Amino acid sequence: MYGRHPTILIFFFLLLSVGEYLYLPGAWPRLSTFHKVLGFFSIISPYWFLYLAAYRDPGIITPATHSKYMSHYPYDFALFHPGQVCRTCNLIKPARSKHCAVCNRCVAKMDHHCVFINTCVGYENQGYFILLLLTTAWLTTYGAYLGLGLITENIQARHPGWRLFKPSSFSWHDYLVLLTFGIQDDVGMGSVTMLALMTTPLVWGLLGYHMYLIYCGTTTNESMKWQDWKLEMDDGFAFKRALPRDRAKDPRWEASWTRWPVESVQVLVRTDDGSFPEAGDHAPGVGDWERVWHLRDVENLYDLGFRDNLVDVFIPGYSFRDETVTDEERGRRSKKPKQTRASAVVDAAT
Ligand SMILES: [Zn+2]
Ligand SMILES: [Zn+2]
């Protein structure tokens, strides 16, 4: 239970393979050339992206890769602070990274540990993970669509008036009896069609959830951290103040340069009892502390707008520094302003 084990990966692989083994012998000869070609690519693409998502490096942080990942994202001084060391890996945690307790290693832009691919979803394989979800969602949808067409043909061969959407000339009883008959006509294809029909909403739902996280410029891990902040804010225990733009970075804890186009302009802290932070403490930032009641009042540094968030997922190492970002454009470069950025992140998680 607590270590890496490919049980679920094998289960997922078998679900695909056994499903296809049962479905194809009856269905394949009845398909047109167009559906055979499209079907071929629909079948192989989930395997291909399963392989890439599961066996590519998710972004493991080692002494060799550490400086690269340190320069990927700046610290946002809300979820990620400079100078925190992973006690197991003995390395400073780069912004957005997390130590995976299952794999026992730190992973860059850790999203979550996924049992279906038996590895973490992180900076380097998140694009493949999304494509795995997309191709699997397409496969189950397409398989169900073709299967329902073939089942309908089975039934209409003997009862020409039957339709998939119940005609009024059929009672529910007759409609369902004939549907069952059509499924049983080719039990392998029929049952896999029904299974595909039932799993399709789950896969699309999972894909939709991850697309929404990308839209918000966040990860599963970070959305949970924002949820914790929301509780602090509800209690009135969260405070923020400004972080100077020309702040000198301590090279011991932070990369002096990152490829990210924006730096944090805020520091977020909590106090144990809701009193304002002490003037003498060493929290970074300047000026007075301001109590924060709502997530919408803090900025999610890692949201550059949907288009750039997608680029960050699908083009690892892309340098956003080539484009200059004005303050006007922060977090809204390719679309309408988002009113509640951090709060949208929590909506995604709940
Ligand atoms: Zn670690
Ligand atoms: Zn892991």
TrEMBL record:
GO terms for molecular function: protein-cysteine S-palmitoyltransferase activity. It is found in: Membrane. It is a multi-pass membrane protein. One of its GO terms (cellular component) is membrane. The chain crosses the membrane at residues 6-24, 36-54, 128-152, 195-215. Keywords: Acyltransferase, Lipoprotein, Membrane, Palmitate, Transferase, Transmembrane, Transmembrane helix. InterPro entries: Palmitoyltrfase_DHHC, PFA4/ZDH16/20/ERF2-like. It catalyses: L-cysteinyl-[protein] + hexadecanoyl-CoA = S-hexadecanoyl-L-cysteinyl-[protein] + CoA. It is an enzyme of class 2 (transferase). Its main location: membrane. The keyword Membrane applies. Residues 326-350 are annotated as: Disordered. GO terms for biological process: protein targeting to membrane. Residues 81-227 form the Palmitoyltransferase DHHC domain. Its EC number is 2.3.1.225. PANTHER family: PALMITOYLTRANSFERASE SWF1 (PTHR22883:SF288), ZINC FINGER DHHC DOMAIN CONTAINING PROTEIN (PTHR22883). Belongs to the DHHC palmitoyltransferase family. The DHHC domain is required for palmitoyltransferase activity. This is Palmitoyltransferase. It comes from Neoarthrinium moseri.
